[in-house]
Amino acid sequence: MAVSRVDGRDKVTGQARYAAEHPADALLYGVVVSGTITKGRIAAIDARKALAVPGVIEVITHENRPRIRSFDLFYKDMTAPGGSPFRPLYDDKIHSSGQPVALVVAATFEAARYASSLVEIAYEAEAHETCLLDHLERSHKPSRLKAGYTPPPEPKGFADEVWDSALVKMEGDYYSGVEHHNPLEMFASTVVRGVDGHLTIYDKTQSSQNSRWYVSHVFGLSKDKVTVRNPYVGGAFGSGLRPQYQLALAVMAALKLERSVRVVLTRQQMFSFGHRPETVQRVRLGARPDGTLTAIIHEALAETSRNEDYVEAVVNWSGQLYACEHIRLGYKLVALDRFSPIDMRAPGAAHGVHALEVAMDELSYELTMDPLALRLRNYADLDPTDGLPYSTKELRACYEQGAARFGWHQRPGEVRSMREGHELIGWGMASGMWDAMQMFARASAVLHADGNLVVSSAATDIGTGTYTAMCIIAADAMGMPLERVRFQLGDSTLPVAPVEGGSSHVATVGSAVQGVCGKLQKSLFKLARKMPDSPFAKARFEDAEFAGGALRLRAHPGHALPLAAIVAFDGAGRLEEKYMMLPNVLKQKNYLRATHSAVFVEVRVDEAFGTVRVTRVVSAIAAGRIINAKAARSQIIGGVVWGIGQALHEETQSDDRLGRFMNHNLGEYQVPVNADIHDIDVVFVQEDDRIVSRLGAKGVGEIGQVGVAAAVCNAIYHATGRRVRSTPMTPDKVM
Ligand code: MOS
């Protein structure tokens, strides 16, 4: 199916309300004061001038905040890495640049904003360390692990010895700088306080239940005192996987002042919490002259904060993508005086698979072999690390269909062999891989006597199309027209759903939706059998089908009962079911479950300026059954655009003397604009994976980005003969 999003009209007409847009009576406005040192302590705070501004009600600091819990445990949201989470306005300690140090609360936003500039803070600064490259020697193995994180596997074979004596080999060091998510919607929380003290919080988050859990724990509020809603989220890309500090500050103000409060961060403040970590990698590949890989060694060093071990699986895919007898993977962290990094679209894979795929390209030139032929030569039919089968893996079809669409077979092997005017032309390709995950979720469904179906789960739609996908799954299961189905999400009181992350929502929540519809079908069938003159009186469930908004006999489609009539017969006027979807872990653990891609790219490089245009991209994707072809294609296009940003534009620059990010705005933090984007062609190859989910779906989001930057890098090499081993590949590096 390919349909436009069901929430599209609400979005384009401004009916969809985001976290900072929900109204409340007598609302107060909080503006965050950001610290100006990177490490040390607050010596004194003078809020007198700020408090003198008309309309200002309070300046909340660590000295006068309401009571909050002190133990780490209470600050651990569902996605927290190991260690001690940051506690907003907890004490006088400053841990990182831009840390919130006060919240000015006023009757108007303008008064709060002006007064925030008048809060005087004296600091005692200490020396900080924010430069990864200066501190590589004090790396450590992650010890405080995160739930769900898989460390690199034990070495297989004798990778170092085999690499040393390999007939053909390459070695490369790769670097990727810090990146920030920059969703269009700023982080915001509107806390609406009811007369009974109940807090209804509109929060920008990738999980209403995660934020609800966090607020309850930090402030010691019982579960029924707090409801979190996030019906619409204006992008997040991972930055909303953890509750951000504006949530805690807004709740603090609401509790202290017993009022409704809104706190919205500024674009600059959006650079003061999690980011994609700066990462240094070394890849070594050994091969026989025919291209058979004999050794893969991939080691990564990434930054984390002093207080937490933020981990991501940077190197793991290097043991999963190509058949090889000798593999050694390593991953270490360096703790810096920065805020903890956080997952950002395809965390780990975005730069880990990048390094591997650039290294494979480098090896192909050492071998004088076509880069695609090299990948096919080493195609893995079993998990190279532990010999498990893939649940499904149509990567070969991605290579074939992508190459055909791109015209790859016409590619000259020589570098600098294509040009037009002042531009050198190059073609490059790369593989991509991302985990296909399924988590635990519940769903409920109510079929009304008017024939409308409402399905609910505390899922999230960060712009990815959850509303629409769930409506399609429910309509499909019930044989109902799409317009008759409504999906409710974004409310912590709805049935349990996980965070929307890891491209797992369709396989997870979608399976719960399918499951609850299955229960509804059974109940409808039972009821139908009892109806007077029922055509189903003697039928078995298997003899019936749900189609055209009715229950009918497969053998006699004319013998049908409209679903609305069956519900009406029940007397209650509604039929409700609940379902709990538990992944079949015992079955799943016997398979390597992943999505795959093959990306083909054409670049044109201005020979004089070193500017790069990505003029053509073909992305062939294997991601299980596709639920909504239109939304899935948009997800992949978005991923490709992000990959182009990773390749050519995005980097947050750190001034390590100050320990600060310097380009903390959209003027200087470069992302691709329309002029940077040309032809993007998306191909979905046939795949149906009943091990990842009963739906056959895996999930499309992050896989769209993985491998794109590597394909651009490889195309730049083909065009120019210049290998750029760090991202972004700016003109100064290209020429
Ligand atoms: Mo995504 S980084 O799993 O929100």
From TrEMBL:
Family annotation (InterPro entries): Ald_Oxase/Xan_DH_a/b, Ald_Oxase/Xan_DH_a/b_sf, Ald_Oxase/xanthine_DH-like, AldOxase/xan_DH_MoCoBD1, AldOxase/xan_DH_MoCoBD2, AldOxase/xan_DH_Mopterin-bd_sf
Ranges annotated as spanning the membrane: none
Domain Aldehyde oxidase/xanthine dehydrogenase a/b hammerhead residue range list: 13-127
Matching Gene3D superfamilies: Aldehyde oxidase/xanthine dehydrogenase, a/b hammerhead, Aldehyde oxidase/xanthine dehydrogenase, molybdopterin binding domain
Cited PANTHER family: DEHYDROGENASE, XANTHINE DEHYDROGENASE
Protein name: Molybdopterin-dependent oxidoreductase
Organism: Massilia frigida
